[in-house]
Design goal:
Elements lengths: L2 E8 L5 H17 L6 E3 L8 E8 L2 H12 L4 H9 L8 E6 L14
Antiparallel strand pairs: 1-3, 1-4, 2-3
Length: about 110
């Protein structure tokens, strides 16, 4: 099964360059450590300052391993703190979504 991790943020006005620069630094640390980098995008509809960071993982276990490893990277905490200063308080949200089902799983299928 494939999982997508999305980090949704609403940014304070004028902080987009600071936030994205920190994310580029975080991605460089991730890549250097052999971890998955996150893409940065904004929804076409929604608030003016909405931002999404997104990465795909082969399993929930793979996500957990990388999540713990990324937190342990030197400098990652300071970069995350810099990003949180850019976020409108109370608007941060994360999602982990299963994108695919194992073969043969169909809604309402008979299990015989």
């Amino acid at each position: 099964m494939t999982y997508r991790h999305q980090i949704l943020r609403n940014l304070k006005f004028g902080t987009l360059p600071t936030f994205t620069a920190a994310e580029r630094e975080k991605n460089a640390l991730r890549v250097q450590a052999g971890l998955t980098p996150y893409s940065i995008w904004a929804p076409a509809f929604g608030g003016l300052h909405h931002l999404v960071l997104e990465a795909t993982f082969e399993s929930m276990a793979a996500f957990e391993v990388e999540h713990v490893a990324a937190k342990a990277l030197d400098g990652m905490g300071a970069l995350s703190a810099r990003q949180l200063e850019c976020v409108i308080e109370g608007t941060a949200e994360d999602r982990l979504q299963r994108l695919s089902l194992d073969g043969g799983e169909t809604a309402g299928a008979d299990s015989r």
